[in-house]
Amino acid sequence: MNRRNFIQSNAVLGLSSVIPDTIPNTQPATDNRLYWAKLLYKIAEPVLKNLAEGTLVKNWKVEYSPAWDNRNAKVAYLEGFARTIVGVAPWLALPDDATEEGQLRKKMRDYALKSIENSVNPSHPDYMLWRKEGQTLVDAAFLAQALLKAPDALWKPLDSVGQKRVIEEFKLLRRVVPPNNNWVLFAAIVEAFLLSIGEEADRYRIEFGVRKIEDWYVGDGWFKDGEIFHTDYYNSFVIQPMMVDVLQTWLEANKRQSPNGNHKALQERTTLAVKRMQRHADFLERLISPEGSFPAFGRSVTYRLGAFQALAHAALIHQLPEGVSPAQVRCALTAVMKRMFAQEGIFDKEGWLTLGFAGHQPNIADSYSNAGSMYLTTLGFLPLGLPTTDPFWADLDAEWTQQKA
Fold it and tell me: Fewest C-beta in 10 Å: which of 11, 111, 167, 352?
């Protein structure tokens, strides 16, 4: 990518066009943070604002893969909503402030809360396709993950009617038998969320999902996805971070219910899952080139920054691998964002994400992909949930591994 495209990408987001000739490492971290926040807002606003205002189905002309597998097309709306809110959730959990970022965050939180309410209201025009397709389990899981990441911002402020409706939709998903792959974690995290709020949970679906994933570990920070090992980003899209979230939630719930109980075995499983995610995050950081590109391979590569969820999640919970500093992760991910989101066609004329990797490339979309699927890219922004004083944002810029190499 050339210097002019970097300047254009920042101009779109209202940032300074003074960009160094090489990506590292002269911008203050505060400028990088504002860039992240504005970019995330640009991605998320069309989905959450329209859903909050009851115009999502009306205004979103969803793009589908040319190889679309002919499932119910309305799954796109829940995909777009759930995959957006899971990435913005940690950011929305931060307290309000009077900064430019804080004003964006407050507006987005208001949209998010109203979006949750509308999505589960059967009489609302944007009521989601909760009760028909098995695909619903996938995106209910991302909503559950969002609620686990920001309960004080996204769950507790809901009124009792909204909470009751979410719980009802989640429990009705027990009708979906997950296939023998990463979907077992989707069932597990929905039940883990119910457990976290004191609802009756199907603990078998939690234990079954966790045990399956544990059995599929092949070593060196990699899990199989079912009985087959896939060379793709699904360890980061789903498996590693969701495994950690499920186990941590399960452990915390057990400690609350039985403060004097013996939780050693579950604690050890949780610690091991974190270590495995750390190892996987180490690989992900090394995939980022000195120029801010990364390899495009495997299923669902159109999820873009979602490929780095395990790295972003490790940063969010202060569990980066040894020898990988928060600052170098910040700089590496910033470089990826600036390179990727400067590409022409990544947004359509109305501001929705398009099918593709670097721009609009619909022919590389998998048969199950639609424009709603693309919003899993928000998971690359999880460290926005860290305050400005955290080393991730406060430390001086640093080279990442490929630059050092």
Answer: 11
